[in-house]
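WARN  no MSA supplied for this record, continuing single-sequence
INFO  ligand: magnesium ion
INFO  echoing inputs
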Amino acid sequence: MRTTVSTYQMLTGDDGSPIQLLSPTGERRHHERYDRLIEDIDRGALVALYEDMVVARRIDAEGTALQRQGQLGLWPPFVGQEAAQIGSAHAIRSDDFIFASYREIAVAYVRGIPAPDLMKQWRGTANAGWDPSTFNMAPTQVVIGAQTLHAVGYAMGVQFDGAETAVITYFGDGATSQGDVNESMVFAASFQAPVVFFCQNNHWAISEPVGLQAHVPIGLRAPGFGIPSVRVDGNDVLACLAVTREALQRARSGNGPSYIEAVTYRMGAHTTADDPTRYRDANELEDWRSRDPISRLEAHLADLGFLDDALRGRVAEKADAVAASLREATINMPEPEPQELLEHVYAGPHPILDRQLDYLQRYHAGFADDAAHSAGTHAEGGH
Ligand SMILES: Cc1ncc(C[n+]2csc(CCOP(=O)(O)OP(=O)(O)O)c2C)c(N)n1
Ligand SMILES: [Mg+2]
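INFO  complex generated
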């Protein structure tokens, strides 16, 4: 009798290091398996990746500034994670479907979500910033890990339809400890759903370090479910593009789910409501600063002779224009009517919601007296 050993495993570089196609100083590292996946990436495609990364970082800075100025309720910075998000997003086809978390703002930007729609959720003017069916991207999820269940369910639907669509879901290192993520992997493996699990291991789940969540690399969690896995350098835009292309192709061709652990770093705060200096070592941040994903691509472009003042200027101009449109859209966003909060909960009227609406209207009407009173006091005070 022969014993068969399961071949599910996690692909890595040498000694378990993440797969790299660009060294931290921008030299191209050749890789037998992944080179062919980016052989079409010419000067124009490299510049497009660079432009998107720079613009995304500017969107992030603008979001943080708008929150500090009281224009947004909250903002989740993704600075440091541009290569993971932009590299993977460039691999996604327009007919593929994306289920992401709050932090994947750069993915949404590459998807073509208009600036005002990107900001609605953070200004609190809409429950969803955009129509998912227009962009093939679901509204971003704040319930940690829940989007992976939605993704697998959608992927199973795609399978029933016999469509040639791949589904990709983004989540964090902390999310991998959630039941939802584990349950979705069971379903994905059982039904060989056409889904890619893209985990951005940014080393922190708010104040909890990844080492506490997992005593093995996060990517090793997938093979136990029967899902092939790869550990990639999440600050290397070319490597992220290559592994995501491979995984999406596997899904589209009926070969089931894949898992990607992109090893990156959250250089900013968890959100604008968080102060990371209270729980993390400044040296750690400095160490990761030296692996900045944008500097790495700049070094590569410079190596190839593609980076000059004209390109820098053009990209900076684009970033400024996008940031200005984001700011204008945010500040001028129409305020929703309070009752809109209860719309779209059910397809039609519902007695409980009717009662809540009635309460809401009486509650707001109560302020009308106050407003009239203070207007009167004000007028009297004027004399
Ligand atoms: C179900 C659920 N539990 C807890 C939270 C509170 N929470 C918000 S973000 C977060 C940490 C998530 O960390 P990770 O998955 O690594 O993603 P990251 O924020 O680093 O991108 C937690 C616990 C939540 N939003 N949802
Ligand atoms: Mg995290």
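The first strand starts at residue 10 and ends at 11.
INFO  checksum written, moving to next record
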